[in-house]
Write a structure and sequence with these properties.
heterodimer; A: alpha/beta; six-stranded mixed sheet; three-stranded antiparallel sheet; 9 strands; about 25% strand; globular; B: mainly alpha; two-stranded antiparallel sheet; flat
């Protein structure tokens, strides 16, 4: 079926720099992400991985090359990126912008989404009163209420402790399998990528230097030797690219 | 355990919050400043007895205070209406910022009093003396609004700005739902600083006779500033003392009932 295999996101020879006359953070980057798959971009911190997501959602324009995104897209940010003056439900309501529906329908949908993420009792709380994991879940709820086809995740676990990030990664997988949302996650943690992704894009030297398919059934175990092998392989690619 | 939550004292300088009882607040807001006024009265009259005058008209002083407060708030509203857009303009583009920031810096440092005679002559020629005082207040107050707007815009996290765009908010919605609320804390601080600058200037801004050639006290604007200057000039210590006291009380009341609640509310709008 072509529907299941068409591409949601295509980067063709994309280059980008923050300011004119500054060195490129992205050089000739090319990759595609198939509909219904979970992709992960890994690379060292501060290398410009998040720029790929900003380009993917149209927040910035490439200097050269083309970015094609054919899906209704939402994004999950590091630490939730919530508005501190809005309650949890008011923050989630932002996700409805441009979405049809009555106020009552939106309200019901928000409550459902919050319940499913275990935040039903916190709908009137302010972000300041939440833990890091809860904030991130509110960010996820905000991204999900409008039923996106494609979800971009910018370092979603970086501000969380190990236990919380493990639990949240399970929840993400559940959302991924139940709702058939294509996902693209940026992370500096290769293990997280190996645990979740169908394909890992290695970002080093300002470009996608390697693509590593992960043909392992889910849920995966961090101690599984196949997962460990993939982590080792990706680490090797990054180290090699840094030496070059 | 008794919670001090309801009695926090918020300082606009930094993020300090001090627990305080209502009694402590009244003490720090009213009793201590009034003691200072008493000290001033003692220095003026060289006696511990409070100056008394049978001609003192308390209503006049109160009305004068009201006129000054009105003048200050007209200038303050103008500062908000003009200062916020000027701050937004400076932050809209790096090149615009590189041009406007030095202009704002220089303009802020210009002492408005140095220009006052010229301002007066301009407004006298158009017969609008009230405009001279409001303009002078505006010129001394607007900089805290502009610079606090610029500072506030700089601390909005990049990700929060991205949220508005990613979730498809219109430009106006991004301004009203993200930018303006994010500017609330720096604007409260900026407003406190602006009003403080305004109180300093209002005294001279109302005593117009000092700047316009061949003019008398009759040309002064009606307000607490002119009452202070005129009673000092006439040696009316009773009126001077009352005017100083009501001024202190007014400033304390504004702090207690306007700025304190706004500073407390601003805490909710701050990014971690």
């Amino acid at each position: 079926m072509t529907f299941m295999t068409d591409n949601v996101l295509t980067f063709s020879n994309v280059s980008y720099c923050y300011e004119p006359n500054e060195p490129h953070v992205l050089r000739d980057a090319s990759f595609t992400l198939k509909r219904g798959t979970f992709g992960a971009i890994v690379g060292p911190s501060g290398a410009g991985k998040s720029t790929l997501l900003r380009l993917a959602i149209g927040l910035t324009k490439p200097l050269s090359g083309t970015v094609t995104n054919t899906a209704r897209t939402r994004m999950i940010f590091q630490d939730g990126a919530l508005l501190p003056w809005r309650t949890v439900k008011e923050n989630v309501h932002l996700g409805f912008t441009g979405t049809p529906g009555t106020k009552r329908e939106h309200h019901k949908r928000i409550q459902e989404e919050l319940e499913s993420l275990g935040l039903g009792h916190l709908s009137d709380a302010y972000p300041r009163e939440l833990s890091g994991g809860q904030r991130q879940r509110v960010g996820i709820a905000r991204a999900l209420v409008a039923d996106p086809e494609f979800l971009l995740l910018d370092e979603p676990f970086s501000a969380l402790d190990f236990e919380t990030s493990a639990r949240l990664s399970e929840e993400l997988l559940q959302i991924f399998s139940e709702r058939s949302i294509t996902m693209l996650m940026v992370t500096h943690n290769i293990e997280d990528a190996a645990m979740l992704a169908d394909e890992i894009f290695v970002f080093s030297g300002g470009t996608i230097s390697h693509k590593v398919p992960v043909h392992l059934p889910r849920p995966r175990n961090r101690d599984d030797q196949h997962v460990e092998h993939i982590v080792k392989e990706v680490k090797g690619f990054i180290t090699h690219a840094e030496k070059v | 355990m008794r919670s001090h939550k309801g009695f926090q004292y918020y300082s606009h300088r930094g993020r300090r919050k001090h627990p305080s009882t209502p009694l402590e607040r009244i003490g720090s807001h009213l009793i201590l400043p009034i003691l200072l006024v008493l000290a001033a009265a003692f220095i003026t009259t060289h006696t511990f007895a409070l100056p008394y005058s049978s001609t003192l008209n308390f209503h006049t002083v109160l009305l004068a205070l009201g006129a000054s407060v009105l003048r200050l708030f007209i200038a303050y509203i103008l500062c908000l209406l003009i200062g916020i857009p000027l701050g937004l303009l400076a932050e809209s583009d790096k090149r615009i910022e590189s041009v406007l920031l030095p202009v704002y810096d220089v303009m802020e440092s210009i002492p408005v009093i140095a220009f006052f005679p010229v301002i007066i002559l301009f407004f006298v020629s158009s017969g609008f003396l009230e405009g001279a005082a409001v303009f002078m207040l505006f010129f001394s107050m607007i900089w805290s609004i502009i610079f606090n707007t610029i500072g506030g815009l700089k601390v909005i996290p990049k990700e929060v700005i991205a949220v508005g765009k990613v979730f498809g908010l219109s430009r106006w919605d991004r301004f009203t739902k993200i930018t303006l609320p994010a500017l609330f804390p720096p604007l409260v601080t900026g407003s406190i600083l602006a009003l403080a600058a305004g109180w300093n200037i209002v005294i001279v801004a109302e005593a117009l006779h000092a700047y316009a050639p061949q003019s008398t006290h009759a040309h002064d604007l009606y307000g607490i500033g002119s009452v202070l200057v005129q009673s000092a000039a006439a040696g009316d210590n009773a009126q001077l003392f009352v005017a100083m006291t009501v001024l202190v009380v007014m400033i304390a009341v504004l702090n207690l009932f306007l700025w304190q609640p706004l500073l407390a509310r601003a805490e909710r709008y701050k990014f971690d």
